[in-house]
Design brief:
single chain; mainly alpha; Recoverin, domain 1; 68% helix; 82 residues
């Protein structure tokens, strides 16, 4: 690869990552019905009824009972990989 092609590939990769992060942020805000800044199982299931309590708990890494924006992003990233 030429240095220019490597640079373009890196730029497009970063742009795609930023777009995905923005999509996740927008989705998080849309699901956060009570505006608490965290997502409850009820809020998640309103948007995605197939999500089980077991799956939700697996991504609640701090055990707070809610998903933070970071925990939600990790869950979304895992879902997109599968």
């Amino acid at each position: 690869m030429t240095p220019r092609l490597i640079t373009l590939t890196a730029v497009f990769g970063l742009a795609a990552s930023a777009a995905c992060a923005e999509d996740t942020t927008n989705e998080f805000a849309a699901i956060d019905a009570d505006g608490s800044g965290n997502l409850s199982l009820t809020e998640i299931q309103a948007a995605a009824p197939e999500v089980t309590a077991t799956e939700f708990i697996a991504y609640d890494s701090d055990g707070s009972g809610d998903l933070s924006a970071e925990e939600f992003a990790a869950w979304k990233a895992e879902k997109q990989m599968n």
